[in-house]
Amino acid sequence: MTTSPAAAPRNASEGSGWGWGWTEKALSDDECRALGQMMPGLDADPIPIPRAYDLRLATPRIAPPPTLAAICSTEPRDRASHTYGKAFRDIVRALRLDYDHAPDLVARPRNEQDIVDVLDWASAADVAVIPYGAGSSVVGGVECRSAEHHAVVSLDLATMRDVLEVDRTSHAALIQAGAFGPELEHRLAAHGLTLRFFPQSFEFSTLGGWLATRAGGHFATGETHIDDLTEAIRAVTPRGVSESWRLPASGAGPSHDRLFLGSEGALGVITQAWMRVRPRPTHRASASLRFADVHQGFAAVRAITQSGLRPANCRLLDPAEAMLSGVGDGRAGVLVLGVESATAPVDDRLAEIVALASDFGGATTSPPGERASSRDTDDEGAATWRSAFLRMPYVRDGVARMGGIAETFETAITWDRLAELYESVREELRAAIKEVCGVDGIIACRLTHAYPDGAAPYFTVTAPAGGADQLRAWDALKVVAGDALARHSATITHHHAVGRDHRPWYDRQRSEPFGAALRAVKRELDPAGILNPGILIDP
Ligand SMILES: Cc1cc2nc3c(=O)[nH]c(=O)nc-3n(C[C@H](O)[C@H](O)[C@H](O)COP(=O)(O)OP(=O)(O)OC[C@H]3O[C@@H](n4cnc5c(N)ncnc54)[C@H](O)[C@@H]3O)c2cc1C
What we know:
- The chain has 15 helices and 20 strands.
- It is α+β, with helices and mostly antiparallel strands and 539 residues long.
- The site of flavin-adenine dinucleotide has 38 residues, from strand 3, helix 6 and strand 10.
């Protein structure tokens, strides 16, 4: 994972605009065609990459007041790059130059007062405000679909991205919400510290986005969510600034911070947070094991998480996922393990974990051993998995350009129900792909995070659209997936958040008294209902 500040984008417009990540890393036309050879049924040629001058956006419905003009942009490229997140549906619509939901303005606040001013103006002028980190949402979190407001402003926090203070005594750092992953890590590295929060979207996502979506990061066990690393949050709401005290823990009533963790821009704009940081690990080791029977792999992961050995990485890839990641031939699952420590060698702990996994039939693909801190010297399976993991979003965009479907969804469920969920989701999706697309697709699964009482399966669906419209086909498959999860009482999201795409299932998942409380909080903090309308509750 690079931590060079040069690797940090300055803002969302600096990425490819239409797809994931860096422009130069996107698959070339020839690489897209090569995908077509691997998956019969894809188009013969890729959809051309949109060019900035092809953008045709509606005229902005509103002009900023003179006091905010200096921080607002109506540039088509700015508005286009803030229209969508980075879900498959977003990529396809961007490729089609469909920017019907483009915000009228993009505001880039320099400080909290600018945010207060934007919210005051927007509340009075009935303008929806969409807090925007880096736009890596995969659940429609930054796309304003509501037509109820006079206009829409995307509030891009990327201009507020400093590490303001580091408390070496308490191992905490005060970080502004707009800080992108690489830059934030680079600043902490100067102090020998790290947040060690590496979601797959690390390069193109921000601290504020992680907090607002309760993102899941590097640690596959233990402190899996950003929640666990959060000490105190400061947020600007239309009703004033909310700030919690810095505390290592507190039993004083419902948690202050929990209100904003996962609030997805609907309750306030997170401006900064004190985050728990740690010394950088100096001892790391990794190993990988093959499982002929993926269910034995599940059992191994359960035993590992219940053993208290707490590997940092413990990701079980099912046979299809192992094949897509280049670490298997499609016949066996692969368990990728990693252990790390800032203080003591980890080889014994890794050996213990490997031995435990072997009891369930896991066969090591290479002997485990400790390697000093460089990732370059990872176990081969782990290294191959990691580079495929980082490349996957670019490949997904390539499949989208070739007229196919490539999308992921994720959940969490207790161990006693995992096997049944895994089998039935795959079976139902397989049938649905056949029905919707008329062809066979690939359904791959990995366990991204694991707990003593359950795990988070993450599914990837890849298929030719088979003559069906790509978007309609995916929407139909998504309903099948969401309904299957709900039937098993598995969460509609473990870490991708609710956004707009998961609302129907989220509404079923939460209790009515809780929903009523959320609506009351929204009314109180955002009386004009301008903040990210449609998120968590109806506008
Ligand atoms: C290729 C890829 C890989 C991904 N991998 C992971 C992963 O490993 N783990 C994971 O958890 N997620 C992952 N995601 C999803 C996404 O990266 C996360 O949801 C991330 O937390 C969003 O951060 P962002 O800064 O891009 O926020 P945005 O996408 O800009 O916003 C997300 C939501 O948060 C709100 N928001 C953003 N900033 C603020 C703020 N300062 N105050 C209030 N609300 C705010 C927005 O209004 C929106 O509702 C991935 C996405 C992609 C495309």
